[in-house]
Specification:
By secondary structure, the chain is mostly helical. It has helices at residues 2-28, 32-64, 74-90, 97-104, 106-128. It has one domain. Helix 1 crosses helix 5 (106-128) and helix 3 (74-90) packs antiparallel against helix 4. The two termini are 27 Å apart. The chain crosses the membrane at residues 12-28, 34-53, 74-91, 97-117. This is ATP synthase subunit. It comes from Cytobacillus kochii.
Length: 129
């Protein structure tokens, strides 16, 4: 399963880069509630990404040992998204709700971008041969 861990390592770098960009935006612009919402959503999205990777590894190990397979943690991920929205609704002066929702989607965008970059690199390597 090193492939999943390699992908997660790349995606973690992208997520941390985005988070640092959002922190700079929060610190140096007048759109602090928007960037704070992006930070909150992205942090919980990053947690969800880590959670799904961990669950996938546990899923693989359970299949190899021929044990019963548990869920992939959908309810945990939904609960963290609901938590982010509840926080944004409770403190609208600090968190912009639409930014929180966009932040929750960043891990999916990062996964798609990583997929396209890796398939581009693989295609380029095949053409070189």
């Amino acid at each position: 399963m090193p492939e999943i861990q390699e992908r997660f390592s790349r995606q973690r770098k992208y997520m941390l880069f985005l988070l640092s960009f959002f922190v700079l935006g929060w610190g140096f612009t007048s759109y602090q509630s928007i960037f704070l919402g992006l930070i909150l959503g992205t942090v919980l999205s990053f947690f969800n990404l880590w959670l799904i990777v961990r669950k996938m590894i546990q899923f693989r190990e359970a299949v190899e040992k021929e044990q019963k397979v548990r869920s992939l943690g959908t309810m945990s991920r939904m609960a963290s998204a609901a938590l982010a929205v509840i926080i944004a609704l409770e403190y609208p002066a600090y968190f912009h709700l639409i930014s929180v929702v966009l932040g929750l989607m960043t891990s999916y965008l990062v996964i798609m971008i990583d997929f396209f970059l890796q398939s581009f690199h693989l295609r380029k390597k095949r053409e070189e041969r």
